[in-house]
Amino acid sequence: MALFAFKQASGGGEFIFELTDEGKINKARKILSGEETSEVHVMGRFRKESKPYNPGYSYHLDPDTVVFFSFAIEVCDANMQYLEDHLDEAGGAFLPGAYWCPWDSRLSREVSA
């Protein structure tokens, strides 16, 4: 298990998420080192439940669904603070299927446990 953080160019602070799959952990580390330059944005299904490692947000990314991407469809793009502010609407017409793919997400660091 490892924790990583990303920021968005559109603001909203930092979002921390958990990875449990060794392949995904290695890919995240390659993104941070600059070795991976193509699939660098974060996507996954959010769960409407807070986690202690990510204070300030009432949702988290399900570690089993996190992937890294180059491009994604517009319907899953949202700012982390906008998602927090409209969490009650999320998962329906807004972010259908609870998929979240912030286009401007950029890994910022690996978080110490």
From TrEMBL:
Domain of life: Bacteria
Organism phylogeny: Bacteria, Bacillati, Actinomycetota, Actinomycetes, Kineosporiales
Domain BP74 N-terminal as annotated: residue spans: 2-112
This protein's name: BP74 N-terminal domain-containing protein
Organism expressing this protein natively: Kineosporia corallincola
